[in-house]
Write a structure and sequence with these properties.
heterodimer; A: 167 residues; alpha+beta; Glutaredoxin; 2 domains; 5-stranded mixed sheet; globular; B: alpha/beta; Ubiquitin-like (UB roll); 5 domains
């Protein structure tokens, strides 16, 4: 077993030990585990199915039904572009294009260096500040293509510093 | 903050309600009347997006530097989202004054000049909370004539993480009163108040409760539907973040009246702050025995759990929401039986929207007659709307039912931004419709809007101006429903996909004759062939835009032109050489694609191959030149 697998097993066990074993506990279990791991690996889903005594497919079905759950590890920083009605009409789709160009990935993808993941979100309810992009859980208002570059700026030195350390 | 709530008497000791309340009042008065200045900072999600947390930190730091004794309290959202971040200062000798568009610099100045000095910095004032001689108060605002704050009463005035603030403002008194009434009496009170579901359906709330009370099966449940999925709507978020106890109190009364034992508050995943605020509120209510066993010494027991959604629009539909709590994918089922008969775990379940539940305490407190006296015809009470889009005063507004759209948009919302012309208002999210200028004098109530081809929905209102393309809006909303369709019904799953593709082609200038008829045919089929509200209402945006803006569809189809200059495939950006100022380089510097170059005469030229049509150059071009224009169709750009 790799270190990663051991980690997943330990975290899954921790969450399961605190929660009930009913089918109604499935979504909260998945939410808590994703909070710890950042995503829901296959190994964890299988373990949850065993523990709740339900078919693995039922777990997978729930995970893929809801937008919030991810099957792949997230990037270090998450960029979520709001595409609610107000954001769309104020140019949210143009902002999304700018993010796609800058990060060179599409929604649902992660940059090769795992620094950023990009996704869209239905509406974060900050319509008064449209167009909105949520950067690492902080909603940023009036994000136009020029502000995209501005938001990315502080991440650059952080990355370079890290890279320097690695070397 | 939240200290008293956390150090309340141990459970089982059942403190009497008057005791709980008088302690809360004492703390509240100490906060407001102790002679110490008080600063309120609005830190709901909209405030945070505008920088409220940075403002809060700046205030605290400056208070520290100046060594000032001053209380700082985080409050929710007042509804004036256009002016966030908002700070309110109450200083002895002055009325409580509210400041808008506060940044860290202004925050520092307010502390130095108003708290430390005696200059109330009138240049940053938004309005005063009460009438006075010094500054205009909110009640002097033109919009105040149309507003009536009932369920938003506490929002932005109290600390949502401190139950004592809610108690001091009359909170939980309705619960205490209700516990002394027979459940049937509460139901008949709610019925004669004429309260109807605020989630969009408009079903009479009292009838729902009565059905649940009379239906066999135990335990019964009450679910608060806080899965506000309509894009463009944020009323429930603001209420849950700013005044969570008003919803909890409503749930408790609903539970008592309908014979329920357990409650769930279902909050959508995209609202992390609302989830946190509700969690805190529930913990504090439990400490004071306002939930749990033998509430306030009565024989009524009720517990409430928080359930966080996982990001599926369809879960706003009640049967899908129940499936989601049961641990299944959120796929709706056929009704009847309605949840009030057979709901969560097959037991009778009341599902009410956040705003519906927030109304309950006011009905119990003030009586059915009072509530029924507000509003119009068959729609009683107030409606809370989220104003967004091209309107000046974006934010929340609570108005009596029967207020017209014109009053809401032009008087409360202060009209259209940038002096543009009103075109339409998108009401009720993806299930609603777009209403044109001719519909502006419609009274806002459950029935009138439906007749006009829209619906009240949960209350999201996105205002659109002359720059917004109705075909593109219909395409966007159809794409949204298509993506969120759970896939159970074929016509909803595939019909919306077809519609989306047809609309996509029209907005790309590739539409074909007969497309409009095809859209209408698809719309009828999807309506007829879908089980739940999502599918049945999915064609509404297309049908309502076709009804009121058919000419726009025709121009797209026949001329390959977008009259609103929005559809990107049908426009091009062009710099008019005669207007371009040679010494100005504003557009060149802002172009993120480096698509703008300067020719020999220092006139700027856009390279159409490189241009991604983001519009940054148009915004950057100084208004005195207005050299950048959009042309449609794109081949109008001179070679």
């Amino acid at each position: 077993m790799t270190a990663e697998q051991t980690h997943i097993e330990r975290e899954t066990g921790k969450v399961l030990s605190r929660m009930g074993r009913k089918k109604g506990d499935l979504v909260p279990i998945l939410q808590q585990l994703q909070q710890r791991l950042g995503y829901l690996p296959r190994q964890a889903m299988a373990e949850i199915a065993r523990s709740l005594n339900i078919p693995e497919m039922d777990v997978y079905g729930v995970v893929t039904f809801y937008n919030q759950f991810r099957l792949t590890p997230p990037g270090r920083h998450s960029i979520r572009v709001c595409l609610g009605t107000a954001c769309h009409m104020k140019g949210g789709y143009i902002t999304l294009d700018a993010w796609k160009r800058r990060l060179d990935i599409g929604p649902g993808e992660i940059t090769p260096d795992r620094e950023f993941d990009l996704d869209t979100v239905a509406c974060v309810g900050c319509c008064a500040m449209a167009p909105v992009t949520v950067v690492d859980d902080k909603a940023q208002g009036e994000v136009t293509p020029t502000r995209v570059d501005g938001i990315l700026l502080p991440f650059q030195p952080e990355k370079e510093k890290e890279d320097g350390k690695d070397r | 903050m939240g200290k008293t709530g956390d150090s309340g008497p141990p459970q089982g000791g059942a403190p009497a309600f008057p005791e709980i309340r008088s302690r809360a009042l004492a703390r509240w008065h100490k906060l407001w009347d102790s002679g110490k200045p008080l600063i309120l900072v609005g830190t709901a999600t909209c405030g945070r997006a505008a920088g409220a947390m940075e403002v809060l930190r700046a205030i605290k730091e400056e208070l520290g530097r100046q060594d000032l004794d001053c209380s700082v309290v985080e409050v929710g959202c007042m509804g004036h989202c256009y002016a966030e971040p908002i700070v309110t200062i109450s200083k002895p000798g002055y009325p409580p004054i509210c400041y808008g568009h506060v940044n860290e610099v202004i925050a520092g100045r307010l502390v130095r000049e108003f708290i430390a000095g005696d200059d109330p910095c009138l240049e940053f004032v938004l309005g005063a909370l009460e009438e006075n001689e010094l500054v205009p108060s909110f009640s002097d605002f033109p919009r105040a004539r149309f507003e009536r704050r009932i369920i938003l009463k506490n929002c932005g005035y109290i600390d949502p993480t401190d139950i004592d603030h809610y108690l001091a403002r009359g909170g939980y008194a309705a619960l205490a009163k209700a516990l002394g009434m027979p459940p049937e009496e509460i139901i008949s009170e709610v019925k004669s108040a004429g309260l109807r579901g605020r989630g969009g359906g408009g079903f009479p709330t009292g009838e729902k409760w009565e059905t649940c009370l009379r239906s066999p099966g135990r335990p019964k449940y009450v679910i608060c539907n806080g899965d506000e999925g309509d894009p463009g709507a944020f009323m429930d978020r603001a209420i849950l973040e700013s005044d969570p106890h008003s919803v909890i109190e409503g749930m408790l009364i609903a539970g008592y009246a309908s014979g329920a034992r357990h409650g769930y508050i279902y909050v959508r995943a995209e609202y992390p702050l609302a989830v946190a605020r509700v969690r805190t509120a529930l913990r504090q209510a439990r400490k004071l025995n306002l939930t749990g066993k033998n509430i306030l010494g009565s024989n009524f027991s009720f517990d409430i759990r928080l359930f966080s959604g996982s990001g599926a629009f369809i879960c706003g539909e009640e049967t899908a929401l129940i499936a989601s709590i049961e641990g299944k994918p959120g796929i709706p089922r056929y009704r009847p039986p309605y949840p009030a008969v057979k709901g969560l775990n097959g037991k009778p379940t009341v599902i009410n929207n956040v705003k519906t539940l927030a109304c309950v305490r006011h009905i119990i407190e003030n009586g059915a007659g009072w509530f029924a006296g507000i509003g119009s015809g068959k729609s009683k009470g107030t409606a809370v709307f989220a104003l967004a889009g091209k309107v000046v005063s974006t934010g929340l507004a609570e108005v009596p039912m029967g207020t017209t759209l014109r009053q809401l948009i032009f008087d409360v919302g202060s009209g259209i931004t940038g002096g543009k012309r009103f075109k339409a208002v998108q009401v009720g999210g993806p299930s609603g419709g777009c209403l044109p200028e001719s519909a502006l004098d419609l009274p806002i109530d459950f029935d009138s809007l439906q007749a006009a081809g829209a619906m009240m929905g949960s209350g999201g209102m996105v205002v659109l101006d002359e720059d917004d393309c109705m075909v593109e809006l219909a395409r966007y909303l159809t794409e949204f429903t298509q993506r969120e369709s759970c896939g159970k019904c074929t016509l909803c799953r595939l019909g919306t996909k077809q519609m989306q593709e047809v609309l996509g082609e029209i907005t790309a200038g590739k539409g074909r004759p007969g497309d409009i008829d095809m859209l209408i045919e698809l719309a009828e089929d999807i309506k007829a062939g879908s089980l739940c509200g999502l599918g049945k209402t999915a064609p509404n945006p297309v049908l309502s835009t076709l009804r009121y803006f058919r000419d726009e569809y025709e121009v797209h189809l026949k001329e390959g032109r977008c009259p609103a200059l929005m559809c990107r495939d049908l426009i091009a950006y062009y710099i008019i050489p005669e207007r371009c100022e040679r010494s100005c380089d504003a557009c060149v510097g802002t172009c993120t694609m480096e698509a703008i170059s300067t020719d020999k005469k220092r006139i700027k030229v856009i390279d159409q191959e490189k241009c991604v049509k983001c519009g940054t150059c148009l915004d950057a071009c100084p208004p005195q030149y207005s050299a950048v224009v959009k042309l449609s169709p794109p081949d109008r750009v001179p070679a």
